[in-house]
């Protein structure tokens, strides 16, 4: 059974293969053959791009995507073990996941971090239940700490921005050499509330697999999970890149070509809503403005984005803002993931 759930499962060559297939499908407007396949997606949190892009991907490939939201048209699910189920969650994931596996050919699961306990979020309770109890392939549609589908879309978008098509056609030169040593900055930005670490983690992993020089610019206290930092550092270095951190709001490495902006909360303030809200207000100068663009800088953001809180209008609407292309690439990246998932399953 194949899982597209955690980045640690995927080596750089496999991810580059998936991204290359996504690029091929996008350029030729062709789709995998998924006739009769059914993807069942379970959304524990709201979604626009993930939900619509997966449903579109399945329909254009001849399959079907069915989406449910626990507690909205279906039972609420309990994920913890050893608890007395006498509250508002009448069905346990241990039964629900096994039952859903009997109805569909693959399952997708989307859940956010609770942001109350870093240890609890690290346990990836919901995703782990799908991995353990599903009897069909599983795709993470975002979990507490990762968003692997966004990672693929980001890699495709970076390749489109920086890739030299003539260079990539030289068979004796690895494709990733085009991006090796080029500068990528993940830039923290303020928000009205703390957000999870999933997208920031997947963002630095995307750049790492391309061998880029990664800089994470964030205020003191807003460090990423050390496991993902170490993973990104090792992958980046092995692919010819590097990893560093900065804590100044105006700091941007010289010749930064990819600027990925995202908001996230301080893990030390999990469960301290009033204190976190006050700190976010104090950090409002970190809002990304048009002046941050250098000569060759291109802006990425996973969306949704709060205009004039996270990024100003002028920065978002700049000619080198690639947020809409990045969002479109969710579709093509997921088409490639679905093709890989079902093809590999068939071979087994």
Task: Give the secondary structure arrangement, pairings included.
Elements: E1 3-4, H1 12-28, E2 38-43, H2 49-60, E3 64-70, E4 73-74, E5 77-78, E6 91-92, H3 93-103, E7 106-110, H4 118-122, H5 125-133, E8 138-142, H6 148-162, H7 165-168, E9 183-188, H8 198-209, E10 213-217, H9 226-238, E11 242-246, E12 256-262, H10 273-282, E13 298-300, H11 313-316, H12 323-347
Parallel strand pairs: 1-8, 2-3, 2-7, 3-4, 5-6, 7-8, 9-10, 9-12, 10-11, 12-13
Helix pairs in contact: 1-6, 1-12, 2-12, 3-5, 6-8, 6-12, 8-9
Dominant shape = globular
Assembly state: single chain
Average pLDDT across residues? 94
Question: How many beta-strand elements?
Answer: 13
Number of helices: 12
Q: Tell me the name of the CATH homologous superfamily of the largest domain.
A: Aspartate/ornithine carbamoyltransferase
- End-to-end distance, in Å? 8 Å
CATH fold-level label of the largest domain: Rossmann fold
Query: How many domains, in number, for the residues?
Result: 2
Strand content is: 15-25%
Biggest beta sheet attributes: 6 strands, parallel
